[in-house]
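Why do we care about 3D structure at all? Because function follows from shape, and shape follows, mostly, from sequence. That is the central idea of this module. The next example makes it concrete: a single protein chain, its amino acid sequence, and then its structure expressed as tokens.
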Amino acid sequence: METKFALFLLWLLFLAAGNSNAAGKKVEGVVVDGNLVQISGALITCSGEQTVTDAFGRFEIIVKAGNEQLAVSKEGFQSAIVNTSGLAVDTVILNPATQERVRLLNQVKKAGEISEAVSFIKGSKMENLPGTNRLNQLSGRLPGLLVMQTDGQPGWENNLISVRGRSIFGTMSSEPTILLDGHEADLTQLDAYDIESITVLKDAAATAMYGLRAANGIILVNTKRGEKGKVKVSLNSQTAVSMPVKFPEMLDAASYAELYNEAAVNDGLSPVYSNAAIQAYRNGSDPVGYPNNDYFNDYFSKSSVQTRNNLNLLGGDDFALYHVSLGHTSNNGLLKTVDSENKYNTNTTYETFNIHANVDIKVNDRLTVFADIKAKKEKRTLPGAYNSSGVSGIIEDMLATPSNAYPVFLANDSLGGN
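And the structure:
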């Protein structure tokens, strides 16, 4: 009897120990910075449990067995992982995070020291975004900057840009001033791999140097320059597929003929299309005499291919820093072409080769010479019907042309509508 009672007590002790381990252990500590100043509001996370430090940097948290690492984080500081295995945490030291440096009009400041209204983005965050116009890729990425793309034609991809909305009305432009390495330039086809950073200057304190020229804000683009050290070589290649969001759904020829007859009768006129003609449109028995065209399907592909390639070299020493960038971009259009009818490409394609090189030469402690070279070669092809309204004019003609106007191809495979 005594033996059974002893075994029962032993089993209870074992069970209590197991429950204690399952419940975990309480860990206490304090979070400080490099100067041993307590940090309040630091987030402590472990196994789904969270807590924050109090006004004196102190915390306590339950740590479950098998998950004995604390994650300690605080904005402005580098995060830390603390192992609590077998020991209670006494002090956690967080080191200050490295602040990004932001280039303004006439100076470079740490992000935490900027009092002006600015937004900035590093060029590395834009390198892998598709498209050739870098300004279009800024949409939604910089507070206060509104970018609306108005054209998807390869090589153009035009847009409307405003900083904090329109500030000038009437016929005057509301576009912000765009500066590339300190001077006004066109950024539409700037190679993404050449960009170091983009800063949007939004208020008078940030744009005062430009006066009225900065009434609509300033977009400041800085390109990459050489760095001291061994030569760094990078090769980047990207392929993207571009597809329209949606093609218009046009009325078929038979439905068009029926509605045309209905409109004529409503106006007191005789029907234009006979029942036999409407049936021929519907069953496609005579595609030349009674065509039923879907122009957007006939003239546009479902997708097009874009490719971008870039070779980057940078390096330097105490005397000179250099950076060289070679880029190639190719963007095929969506139009379908008939090679047998044209001896040249009538698609809206765009191809460009560009080179950007710069060198910074330190003559002495007071004089540094900066030299930049930029060159670009473009090749564009356009449809024969291209006019001042661009491809949009062709689309407008498709929207205005009935689906039974004429066949796309005649019986001898020549183009119809001539």
